[in-house]
Design goal:
There is one protein chain. By secondary structure, the chain is of the alpha/beta class. The chain has two domains: 214 residues, Alpha-Beta Barrel (TIM Barrel); 55 residues, no CATH class. The chain contains eleven helices and eight strands. The strands form two sheets. It has a five-stranded mixed β-sheet. It has a three-stranded parallel β-sheet with strand order 1-2-3, covered by helices on one side. The radius of gyration is 18 Å and the shape is globular.
């Protein structure tokens, strides 16, 4: 099942295959120092090239600040980069991330949306700091800022690092498991806009909205169906079939869901920092499925052909 008729997508003469199975060289979910990554956009572009990637998206949280720098360095390496961002929202009280792939760049409405998200992220950071101070992280906002090492907007990984430095948890994984993961004390969603609003900003820019890492929200299969239905009603068109490492059975089941809903499939490592379990291009093998790759979307023709 596809959002567009088969002959509309299969006539694309792309340098990328029209199947997700066995794909190499693509990573449409990467982070840099423009949000909570540890490599600058230039360093990230260099690493992507070194790892043999040919088509990438820089998807920093709620910002496109690093895209132009990354684009220039990718161009030097002959790597195709698409403008993108991972936007925060909520649906039924659950924090959801939506990747906006922006083959036409941003629109005025999208830029205004980023300003709204920047303000929401600042309020959220203050609330997270307040909550973590109650469990012993003194002056939490300043300590998270120190971990960030710049004035960029703060994210939960910065607070996780602060918890580790303060000796309150042994590592970042424990920080998320105890305090910052979905439904935990530091999981603050109240300031994010609604799902439909964020998808609307992406659509206004002529972009493609993609549900990021749908298996990570702790939902039942039925609830994911409801999420996908609401997402499609809002104008969403794709979801990440593979995000980093995944259980093969869960991935096969997710492929069936995406096929049922007519959603395109995307893939990405969700890379943040060197030395962790994931590197650019590191994902579990996509299964054989009828899900159309997102680069077969008509709007992605130029990106898929490296134009």
């Amino acid at each position: 099942m596809s959002v567009f008729p088969i002959d509309d997508t299969e006539t694309l003469s792309t340098v990328l295959p029209e199947t997700l199975n066995g794909i190499r060289g693509v990573d449409l979910h990467l982070h840099s120092t423009a949000s909570d990554g540890k490599l600058s956009p230039t360093e990230l572009a260099d690493l992507c090239h070194a790892r043999g990637l040919t088509h990438v998206a820089l998807t920093d949280h709620d910002t496109i600040a690093g895209v132009e720098e990354a684009r220039q360095q990718c161009a030097r390496h002959g790597v195709s980069l698409i403008s993108a961002a991972e936007l925060s929202c909520q649906w039924r009280g659950i924090g959801i991330h939506i990747v906006g792939l922006l083959p036409q760049g941003v629109s005025r409405a999208f830029e205004s949306g980023l300003e709204i998200l920047s303000s929401a992220r600042e309020k959220r950071s203050r609330e997270i700091a307040h909550r973590l101070e109650k469990i012993g992280l003194q002056d939490g906002l300043a300590k998270a800022r120190l971990e960030a090492g710049s004035e960029r907007p703060l994210g939960r990984p910065d607070f996780a690092a602060a918890l580790v430095t303060a000796g309150l948890v042994p590592d970042r994984k424990a920080a998320f498991k105890r305090y910052l993961g979905t439904g935990k004390r530091g999981d603050v969603k109240m300031h994010w806009p609604e799902l439909a609003t964020v998808v609307g900003w992406i659509r206004d820019a002529g972009g493609i909205a993609v549900v990021a890492h749908p298996l990570r929200y702790g939902m039942t299969r039925r609830k994911r169906d409801l999420l996908f239905s609401a997402f499609i009603d809002a104008g969403g068109e794709a979801a990440e079939l593979v995000s980093g490492y995944q259980n093969p059975d869960s991935t096969h089941d997710l492929a069936r869901q995406l096929d049922f809903h007519g959603l395109y499939g995307s893939i990405g490592s969700d890379f943040h920092y060197p030395g962790g379990p994931l590197s650019p291009g590191t994902i579990s093998p996509p299964p054989r499925a009828h899900v159309k790759p997102v680069w077969c979307h008509p709007a992605m023709h130029g990106f898929a052909n490296g134009e």
